[in-house]
């Protein structure tokens, strides 16, 4: 079998390559490092063996020789092996040593480059490592040489004379020594320099100074590894080109409580705005055994959630043509969007995503028989309201919402987030039950009136309610609250 030496990039999951994700999904053994992106292993097979071989600063770790032995052993056992490394495996990642061990053992391998932190972290800080007017060359340097070497391999005089940008990896702990060596060798103490901590991650911080003052300012700011140091005129461009900090939710934490399968869209939108997203799914959707009846016998089919829409279409014989001639109602814009993705344009979508508003929209419509596709535990306002008008109503429960066990770390982070977003009454119920009486300390965001009512029933008042009762509305509500602009919710 072939071993894949895969670079996972600098930390932002969005910078992982398509090939890296493809290999992770196919592997049945993954040996992974400490500094891989959060969620990098989410796409791994359920039966994949995950082996942690990371190295903590100052803590004994698995010897590099043993890692090479494991790669050979797994490959010879016929396993599909991925060696997942932060950044790029061939840039200060010891991937070359692992490739040598595999070649010596006669094991085939491939190398999947990753975005290296020495380029990505400065870029996220607004520092281009090369620039037509400021630097035509860049040198990547380790700030932490092998302690077993008889003498240092770095030529400080050559580095001081280097006509371009110097990028140091893993050098925060030795920053005073690096600065002293460079300046003693002739590098200008007044040259711009910067240190970028946790590059590409939501908690990224940057200190910009001169080479002479850099170590002191980094200490004063409390920057810690992992970090990248940039020395050269390009560092000063940060003052004009910084972009990460300009995003409206930069440095702010938002907790998302909706089911994991549905959380990705909301989380992605928030991350794109700079937020540190804490995924704390309080619920899980469990499909129920259900047979979809012949839809042609109904004048009206009502969908009360995107989950219901998806599950009905998954189980429906035929395709969207089964709804031809039937009035289709969606209880809100999110449900209408889910229908649109399946080729159905809802005929009725109330302005407010609640059953009461849908009943008002249907007041003048002649309906004899209706089907309501919904959750098992949904409110009975809609079927009861239609029945009082003489409509024959069939309720089709397609799923139920159950509690998703929340880990202590995720729960604590969600309780302390700047905002916590609740997207249904069930997320309110199950999250607060998991919290055991402890209340969120941040500002509470509600997706709509039903969720707001559930919060108030438990003594909580949302800071803001989404005007549009869907993911877009939740994002708009958080942005409005963050920037202090009026929100029509």
Quick structural gist:
This protein is α/β, with parallel strands linked by helices and about 500 residues long. Helix content is about 30%, strand content about 20%.
List keywords for this structure.
489 residues, alpha/beta, Methyltransferase, Cobalt-precorrin-4 Transmethylase, Domain 2, five-stranded mixed beta sheet, Rossmann fold, elongated
Description:
This protein is α/β, with parallel strands linked by helices and 489 residues long. The chain has 4 domains: 3-115, Tetrapyrrole methylase, N-terminal domain (Cobalt-precorrin-4 Transmethylase, domain 1, 3-Layer(aba) Sandwich); 119-246, Methyltransferase, Cobalt-precorrin-4 Transmethylase, Domain 2, CATH 3.30.950; 253-282 and 404-483, Rossmann fold (3-Layer(aba) Sandwich); 286-401, Rossmann fold (3-Layer(aba) Sandwich). It contains 17 helices and 20 strands. The chain has helices at residues 18-26, 64-76, 95-104, 117-124, 156-161, 175-184, 211-221, 238-241, 260-272, 306-315, 333-340, 355-361, 381-387, 408-415, 425-435, 449-457, 471-483; strands at 3-7, 29-32, 49-52, 81-85, 109-112, 138-142, 165-169, 192-197, 205-210, 227-231, 253-256, 276-279, 283-287, 300-303, 327-330, 369-375, 392-403, 419-422, 443-446, 464-465. The strands form 4 sheets. It has a 5-stranded parallel beta sheet, sandwiched between helices. It has a 5-stranded mixed beta sheet with strand order 6-7-10-8-9, sandwiched between helices. The chain has a 5-stranded parallel beta sheet with strand order 12-11-18-19-20, with helices on both faces. Helix 13 links the parallel strand 16 (369-375) and strand 17. Helix 6 (175-184) packs antiparallel against helix 7 (211-221), helix 9 packs parallel to helix 17 (471-483) and helix 15 runs parallel beside helix 16. It is elongated, with a radius of gyration of 28 Å. The mean pLDDT is 92.
